[in-house]
Design a protein that fits this description.
This protein is α+β, with helices and mostly antiparallel strands and 106 residues long. 11% of the residues lie in helices and 14% in strands. It is built from one helix and four strands, in the order H-E-E-E-E. A two-stranded antiparallel ribbon has the order 1-2. The longest helix has 12 residues, at 5-16. The protein starts with a helix and ends with a strand.
């Protein structure tokens, strides 16, 4: 199954914001990069997935990832604390919701 770079970017951005994280995905550039912050998802889950907010699916930069070429997944910030986790999750939905089907990379 192939995923678009934008879908991957949005979902990775969501995943890294879990549990006291203080990092933001840098590459590939995620959806809504100009409005994302490094705060954890809200405890009530209302901003899941993709840290729902105005312009969450705004494309600020088109990422180019040639098939078969190595790609970089990088983050800015730091997350040195006593717990939490990071997951990379994918969906084929162009604008994911809490009801989207997710594939988790372990």
């Amino acid at each position: 199954m192939r995923y678009s770079l934008i879908q991957l970017s949005a979902l990775v951005a969501t995943a890294v914001s879990y549990a006291d994280a203080h990092i933001i995905m840098e590459s590939p550039v995620p959806y809504g990069a100009d409005s994302i912050d490094s705060n954890p998802l809200l405890a009530d889950g209302s901003d899941f997935p993709c840290k729902q907010r105005e312009n969450v699916y705004k494309v600020t930069k088109n990422n180019v990832m040639p098939i078969g070429q190595p790609q970089t997944l990088s983050f800015i910030g730091q997350a040195t604390h006593g717990g939490g986790s990071c997951q990379i999750s994918l969906t084929t939905d162009k604008q994911p919701t809490k009801d989207s089907v997710w594939k988790v990379i372990e």
